[in-house]
Amino acid sequence: MLSSAIFTTLALPLALAAPLSTFLRPPHHLSARQSNDTNDTTCDLSGIAQPENTLQPPSSNLSLMLIALGHGTQNYTCGANATAAPSSFGALATLYDASCAVATARPPLENLIQDSQAQIGEHFFADLTTPEFVIQGMEPTFAKKAEAVDAPDKAADVAWLRLEAVSQGAVKMVYRLNTKGGVAPGSCEGVVEGETVTVDYEALYWIYG
């Protein structure tokens, strides 16, 4: 069983940024090859179990293709009411191949972030409700949220999710697990209407097809 303890504790600052359109899609993202081939993951993933959770498990006809470490920001936007909580406005993350690190229970995963060769793709939002994953060697995957459960430390860490693919590629399901950070501040106090609040986060994305 993989514990969220594999992550090194990180400082998770808030930052304010500019126009809202900036936060749905990165200005330049990796071009995925138009194929259903997976990455060059050399580790056997067939016997790896997810960390304990209550999300519906993947169906028996699906296989674990890849485990990706996502490192980026959860994004929120504020309206005119300073006492209201910010509204979710998607996420932006760089993806790193964490398959072998998880398969061999070999922390620390933050070393993957420092290794530019480990970068395999990006995660962002095609629109406000459609997460997208662009991963080298795979067709772009568009998904929808099917299920969510609280993270073990729900006050600090964003929820664990089960996402179902709505695109026609090899990927059929994505789980966001082992989250660290990303929770919105309790109010929009001090934030100008229309600005976006970004909160650093990490997560493991378990990708099945």
UniProtKB/TrEMBL annotation:
<feature type="signal peptide">
    <location>
        <begin position="1"/>
        <end position="17"/>
    </location>
</feature>
<protein>
    <recommendedName>
        <fullName>Malate dehydrogenase</fullName>
    </recommendedName>
</protein>
<feature type="compositionally biased region" description="Polar residues">
    <location>
        <begin position="32"/>
        <end position="44"/>
    </location>
</feature>
<dbReference type="InterPro" id="IPR021851">
    <property type="entry name" value="DUF3455"/>
</dbReference>
<dbReference type="Pfam" id="PF11937">
    <property type="entry name" value="DUF3455"/>
</dbReference>
<feature type="region of interest" description="Disordered">
    <location>
        <begin position="29"/>
        <end position="54"/>
    </location>
</feature>
<keyword id="KW-0732">Signal</keyword>
